[in-house]
Structure formats: C-alpha cells, structure tokens
Amino acid sequence: MAAPLILTLGLDPAAFARLDAARRAHFPPARNLIPAHLTLFHALPGEQAEAVCAVLEAEAAATPTFDLDIAGLRFLGRGVAYAAASAPLAALRGRLAGHFAPRLGAQDRQGWRPHVTVQNKVAPELARATLRELEAGFAPWAARGESLLLWRYLGGPWEAAGEFRFAGA
C-alpha cells in the first residue's frame, strides 16, 4: 500500500519564513521533522496519487492567489498554533473535500479549523507559557496562499510529492 498523501497550503515566502522560524523556536527539536504548514487534508489515498494530482492541478489552475489572516493564537493543550482565517481558503477546502469525499478518513471529515502549529507534544504548562509569550507581542497579520503542496507521509518525516501553483502565482 502506498504512503498516504498530505495536502497543505503553500504560503508566500515571507509568511512561511515567519511561521517556520516560530516553529523552530518552540517545537521540540527532536520531534520537528517537517516545516511549518497549514494542513488541508491529513491522509489522501497514496495509491490514487495520479487522480489526486489531476484534481489538484485543475483546482489550482482555477484558483487565484488569495489573502488569509493570521488572526490569533490557539491553545492546543500540549502546544500552540497560529489560527488562520480566509473565505477563499475555506471555499477551496470545501471544493476539494467534495472531490475527495468518498476517500476521506475520519480526521479529514470532521470540522476543519485552519491553523499552523508552532509547538506540539510539550507539557501543558510549557504550552501555556508559550501561548502567553506569543500573545504578548501578537498583532494580526496577512499572509498569501500561493499553491497547494502535496506530501507523502513517511511515518514521521514527509517527502515532497508535488506543488500546484495558483493562477497568478
């Protein structure tokens, strides 16, 4: 059976750099095997990669780049994430969910709240301290969605499996 596929949003370079720096600063180094990311789907069928790529190519070609707001911080219990908000992002994810509906697992069928995790798998006290630290200097800021990024899940690390640029990117 082929490795599952993960789909994330490709962000503009400045936003990615800012979020990835926060992840490197706060994520336990031994567990930080992947870059900062905003997950759209956690497990698409790897054995159907060709069909998945065809859907992603068509959707990306029909989707202009769009803004999203990094609107706040979210406490995850054992970590912290930056919350994102964007009507075009929600619409894109909804269209993709429609395409992939019969193939989605439970995690991808449940409610979706877009975010970028910058800390996870730490003691709740450390997560609360990180949340307080990040909230102290937080002001909402804008990022830009520029592509869809497809990854193969390799049991911990991810392997790049494709980038699908949005129209105008």
What layout of secondary structure does this protein have?
Blueprint: E1 5-11, H1 13-26, E2 38-44, H2 49-61, E3 66-75, E4 80-85, H3 87-100, H4 106-109, E5 115-119, H5 124-136, E6 141-153, E7 158-165
Antiparallel strand pairs: 1-2, 1-6, 3-4, 3-6, 4-5, 6-7
Helix pairs in contact: 2-3
Could you please describe the fold and organization of this structure?
The chain has helices at 13-26, 49-61, 87-100, 106-109, 124-136, and strands at residues 5-11, 38-44, 66-75, 80-85, 115-119, 141-153, 158-165. The protein is α+β, with helices and mostly antiparallel strands and 169 residues long. Strands 1, 2, 3, 4, 5, 6 and 7 form a seven-stranded antiparallel beta sheet that branches. α2 runs antiparallel to α3. The chain is globular. 33% of the residues are buried.
